[in-house]
Amino acid sequence: MPQPPQLTVAWPGKADAEALLGSRPRARWARREADGAPGPASGAASAEVRGASAVEAGPGGKAGEGSGGVRVTQDDNVLVEADNLEALWLLQDSHAGAVKVVYIDPPYNTGNALPYKDTFGQAGHAGWLSMMLPRLALTKDLLRSDGTVFVQVDDTESAYVTLLGNEIFGEENYLGAFVHQRAKGGGNAKRWVRGHDYIHVWARDITQVGPFVREKQPPARYETIDGERYLVEDDFLRVSFGKYTRGSERRLMYEDIVSVRGEAKKAEIDAGIAMGRYVLRPWGDTGKHAVVRLTPADRASSKMYSIVKALGETGRRDLEALGLGGTFGYPKPVELLTTLVLSQTFEDRDAIVLDFFAGSGTTGEAVLALNARDGGNRRFVLVQRPEALRPVAGARTGAEGTGGIRAAGDDAAEPIAFVPGTISALCRERVRRAGARLRAEHPELVTDFLDLTVVGEGPLPGEPEC
Ligand SMILES: C[S@@+](CC[C@H](N)C(=O)[O-])C[C@H]1O[C@@H](n2cnc3c(N)ncnc32)[C@H](O)[C@@H]1O
């Protein structure tokens, strides 16, 4: 059957954006000079120690030197402070065909007062598309054959990015869009209250991509037994079906099965126990046992629903919980990122996750949180340029420059706050703090990252400012 013609999207400046792909910048990785900010309390190794460990490629890890002295391997967590176009070029040396999940949340081109530059001025949609084209094209080469890319946008660029993504990844590899519900309730909207964004998803090769899944939701409980993670259900066996009055025991204890549900039911349960599907656990001081159903965690998933609820308010609270509240206007909720990343790494806990519009570092925290939760060894690669933080309402912003400052609170008894001067400094500090926090409960968790920047040629030729 003849294939329908592949449609392309045209805009002024597209040829220049495509031309960028033909001229790889002469750039290389460099270890970032430690700024004054994080001390040992941050829980991450020093830049020197991280750098030293980075020189050797980890087992099986492909290394790419990016024509410089620093080796970046697929075994490393990486945080790059640079323009993402240069970083994407350099990642081709170490990560081509290796990344399972790419999540990006680029500037939306809305013109809103955000903590980073969000508008493309006169260039409008054309400028935005010119910015995105080379970045998405380079992303494609980094994806594994079963890799997927999630692109979050609002209405402003949704139509345009769909066409651009289809052109780059192929319309046949477009999986559709999730709706992210980020707000609920009223507001002084002019016409209606917009409480959602879109997360468009493409596959490198749609035939290789498995279902998008999520863990069964609470009250489901997971436990690791003999090194395996199981969904543990101690109330699947009930006295009777239907509603229960509060306080009454609905679980049917093993010792009561025959009198309540009969011999056949007990025989069925005994067979399950013999096969290891159920175990008996003493129940309080009743002297009886609950029948507990164990389902291997990798079989205890359900498919994702197309609407993902994760309120923006939660994203702000996530930063507050790390002592970084009020620094960044609209961080995505960690819960959103754990949901998206998990959906494609449920059974692939060593996967590499890339976010090259990293902002406050939500994706880095989400990757660490997932590893802490399921014992995985996913790695993150984050890229964020050292853009000065713009004041957001109620924000405490810090010094200009690439680092951050430590500022004492008015009250000398208050803990010293880290006030980032740039978004990349915030991102770094957030990932360090999140890692330190998670490691307190999971000492085995790997939270170190290569702390890199890119040196070499100056601004890329023809690169639109964004
Ligand atoms: C919408 S924000 C991302 C927010 C992030 N998802 C979070 O949860 O914090 C977009 C980010 O991309 C960054 N950015 C824009 N252009 C960039 C570029 N060319 N290279 C690297 N970062 C860039 C901006 O500085 C901003 O921090």
UniProtKB/TrEMBL annotation:
Q: Where is the DNA methylase N-4/N-6 domain?
A: 99-372
Keyword Mitochondrion set for record: no
Q: Which PROSITE patterns match?
A: N6_MTASE (PS00092)
Judging by the UniProt lineage, the source's domain of life is: Bacteria
Q: Where is this region: Disordered?
A: 1-71
Q: Which InterPro entries match?
A: DNA_methylase_N4/N6 (IPR002941), DNA_methylase_N6_adenine_CS (IPR002052), N4/N6-MTase_EcoPI_Mod-like (IPR002295), SAM-dependent_MTases_sf (IPR029063)
- Reply yes or no: does the keyword Transferase apply: yes
Q: Which UniProt keywords apply?
A: Methyltransferase, S-adenosyl-L-methionine, Transferase
The annotated regions of Low complexity compositional bias extend over 36-47
| Family membership noted in the UniProt record | Belongs to the N(4)/N(6)-methyltransferase family.
Protein name, entry field:
DNA methylase N-4/N-6 domain-containing protein
Source species of the chain:
Brevibacterium samyangense
